[in-house]
Design a protein that fits this description.
The protein is an alpha+beta fold. It has helices spanning 51-57, 70-80, 108-122, 128-136, 155-162; strands spanning 7-8, 14-15, 31-33, 48-49, 85-88, 140-143, 148-151. It folds into 2 domains: 28-92, no CATH class; 99-164, no CATH class. The strands form 3 sheets. The chain has a 3-stranded antiparallel beta sheet. The protein has a two-stranded antiparallel sheet with strand order 1-2. Strands 6-7 form a two-stranded antiparallel sheet. The N and C termini lie close together (10 Å).
């Protein structure tokens, strides 16, 4: 998967390098404030936020179900309240290994549903890359008249054909 094999941590978790989320990955060392052009890249696998900003934000919105959108929502909330998100150079994150798909067809229903939650809350669509890939595969469609995305195809069949 990411070019190097997983390692076992002292607690038995498999450790594997994750995909880079910020435009520039900080070198091991000090924390780096996420730039104005990077806040939406927030990924809750590993993050830092001031305790006061986290408390003010209320944490994760519980309207999201399943995979997708909840991380970007946290970032939007913290940012809207004037808070800050940080990339932590050299931080270690343990993440349970699991197969991945690109796009994540096995999360089709949740992504479409959660994108609508996010759009209602913030006025713009997150995960547009995946939504467009779903549309190209005939799995999702956008109705410009109602400004909504919907699932249009069977995710189970697509998941079998696009698994990686």
């Amino acid at each position: 998967m990411c070019g190097s094999p997983p390692r076992r941590t002292s607690r038995g978790c498999r450790q594997r390098p994750a995909r880079t989320r910020p435009a520039r990955t900080p070198r091991p060392g000090p924390s780096v404030l996420a730039g104005e052009d990077q806040w939406w890249l927030f990924w809750s696998l590993s993050f830092a936020v001031r305790a006061a900003d986290w408390t003010r934000s209320g944490g994760f919105c519980e309207e999201y179900r399943g995979y997708g959108g909840e991380d970007t929502d946290v970032a939007a909330t913290v940012r809207s309240l004037g808070g800050a998100l940080f990339w932590v150079g050299g931080a270690t994150a343990a993440h349970q290994h699991h197969p991945v798909q690109d796009p994540p067809v096995h999360h089709l229903d949740a992504i479409v549903r959660n994108a609508a939650v996010f759009h209602r809350r913030w006025g713009w669509w997150p995960m547009t890359g995946w939504l467009e890939q779903f549309r190209a595969a005939g799995l999702a469609g956008y109705d410009a008249a109602t400004r909504t995305w919907s699932v249009t195809g069977p995710p189970a069949a697509a998941a079998r054909s696009t698994a990686s």
